[in-house]
Amino acid sequence: LEGMAEQQMLNESEIDFDFQREMLPYIEKYLVLDTTNGYVLKIGPDRKIIKVLFGQEELSDERIAEVYGEERQLPELCEKNQWPKRYVDFPSYFEACFLPPMLKLIHEHKNNPEFHVLETFSNMGKIAHESFVPVLTEDLPKSRYFRYIMEEPDKYVVDHRARKEWLQKLREQGYKIFLVTNSRVGYVKLIMEASFGPDWDSVFDFVFLDARKPEFFEKTNKAHKVDGEQTADVVEEGNLELGKKYVRGSYADVNKALGVSDGDVLFFGDQYITDIAAAKQLAGWDTCGICEELGYLVDESKVTIPQGLGAKWGNHLRGEDGRENFWFTFLRKHATHILPTIDTALDASTAEEYFKAFKAEFKDQ
Fold it and tell me: What is the three-class DSSP state of 202?
């Protein structure tokens, strides 16, 4: 099984690209894997399970009620907005790439009594981790994934120099701009140089790398100054130098270094749990959630989500009954603002068009 998983996930000479394209409709963010029985769940309002796949087969309403009860509800979220251990989240499209090989393995072995979903998922996790270990240790050329970005960054990374100019204008108006990412030093340098140019860090007052969100918002990690691409000495809380990069750190470093209180910070992020909810609940910052699917309200042609992605699961925002799905309600609860992209804020007419569409769609807000 581990060999099959490795072939499906990482062995480029063996990947069935027709299968990958065929599986696009099955890939959706914020799905949940029930590791007890191999079911993949979509969660609707009030934690209600609205759709279930077993492999590539959809379960009937009767079967869903038989497994999860007449209410068809998942338990409440635990500490740090996580489901109980039995359930595994796929909170972004990046993690959702686990789904095609996982669904195929489940489909092929659903009648095999020796097939264990949790064990297989764990094996796939180990394989993926081994693939990304070079990135964690900054040895990018050895990575099965990131070496391709390193060889041809322009092929994979979008040029965002217009966004960089916008950020620079904000700084000229007196705003402080900082970047918080869980990615490591070498990878951030690779991506940002391709996106913003070689002087990418000139628009940020601070850069926090390997920040380990949501821990960043809990005031538990000391900041280490970055010298070149090496991590240097620990920095006392709030004793940050403008224009410098740091590893780890916390929201308290930002507040103290800039002399601001919680309500003076607006934090942008596209991960509903580790970016938006954590920044709001733990740090008390205002938040702006990025939800690409909202772009469909204004101009479908500008939405960068591949056509057909997630089609099997239906609308990301609402269920078939028109009610909001669980995770979009979660985002609205914790986000001060919501945009389809950061670029929506670059142009006043685009922003106005979007906000009108949003208000028309969600009249209660």
Answer: helix
Q: Which residue has the higher pLDDT, 197 or 4?
A: 197
* Lowest-confidence segment of 69-83, 115-129, 242-256 by average pLDDT: 115-129
How many CB atoms are closer than 10 A to CB 312?
A: 17
pTM tops 0.70:
yes
For residue 64, what are its two tokens?
Answer: 């869903």
For residue 55, what pLDDT is reported? Answer: 80
Closest alpha carbon to 128 in 274, 1, 271, 5? 5
Positive/negative CA dihedral, 187, 190, 195, 200: positive
Phi, psi dihedrals of residue 321, rounded to the nearest 5° = -85, 5
Half-sphere exposure of 56 (CA within 13 A, CB side): 12
Q: What is the pLDDT of residue 10?
A: 46
CA separation for the pair 123, 87 (Å, rounded) = 16
Beta bridge partners of 222: none
Count CB neighbours of 314 within 10 A: 16
Beta strands, E only, the chain: 31-34, 39-43, 49-54, 57-58, 87-90, 178-180, 206-209, 223-227, 230-235, 244-248, 266-269, 286-290, 337-339
